[in-house]
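Why do we care about 3D structure at all? Because function follows from shape, and shape follows, mostly, from sequence. That is the central idea of this module. The next example makes it concrete: a single protein chain, its amino acid sequence, and then its structure expressed as tokens.
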Amino acid sequence: MSRTLRVTGMSCGGCEQNVESALGELDGLSRVEADHEGDTVEVVADGVADDEIRAAVEAAGYTVPR
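And the structure:
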């Protein structure tokens, strides 16, 4: 299932890579695409809860507003 979440704090391509790398550590994500200009991350996830995604993004230093 594809989902798009808002992510704040990204300001460049390096930030996108940080978010994508953090989410790449989660099992069950088959696609991750961060966009710092749109303040979003799109994920294709099977069996991964939004809370798990949020925790990984926030551990990388960014915010996923509720």
